[in-house]
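Input for the complex:
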Amino acid sequence: MSSELIASAPTQLDFEQIKQIIPQRFPFFMLDRVIDIEPGVRVVGLKNLTGNEWFYQGHFPKKAITPGAMISEAVAQAGIVFFHTTKPQANVEVTYLLGSIKMRFIEPVWPGDQMRIEVTPIKLTSSAGIFNAKVTVENRVVAKGEFGMTAKHNHAL
Amino acid sequence: MAQVQNIEKDVRELIADIIEINPDEINPDAHLVEDLGMDSMMALEILAAIEKKYKIRIPEEDLPKITTINRTIELARKYVK
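Predicted:
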């Protein structure tokens, strides 16, 4: 890999830059910032949870706890950023599909917490990947697992 | 090496676990996609699980060879020293 390539690749993304990569929008946008990108090695994203999140209305009305499904969504979105930054697809619209996910939720995640979502590859091919995911809050692991994702060019759908 | 001797049993169990079928019920020559419902993500999971178990690396080009248990055992043997 040439040094120019490394120098030109972004190592962080702000909210607006993430929006250019992942197709999800409110109420399904689960990354605020990407703080580390090493193409082919790892992506680390942040999600700040406020008591104002839409899902706390129902999960649960008397005690707000972040749904595991939304933690999994944050992990999957970090996976999309990983795929996009590791295998850039210029001028091609790609749909990312979650193929499988196995997560273990170790501690509850509360309003006010900041989730740090780290995704590292187990196996990558040109159009799919299997990843490890680790989610921490203040250096405590709150969730971890594995997931698989495929990238399909839209004309193939 | 014990690991190598057990390839047949280990690969069968590992595939059965991923496609969620009892290992004793799988015909080793049954087609994993047509007969047992394996999808492309499961095939990749099988490849990754074999790599992890034997600490080997199998190239992407070999992914289409995961068609039956016996073909997958052959594939694993090719790379496990």
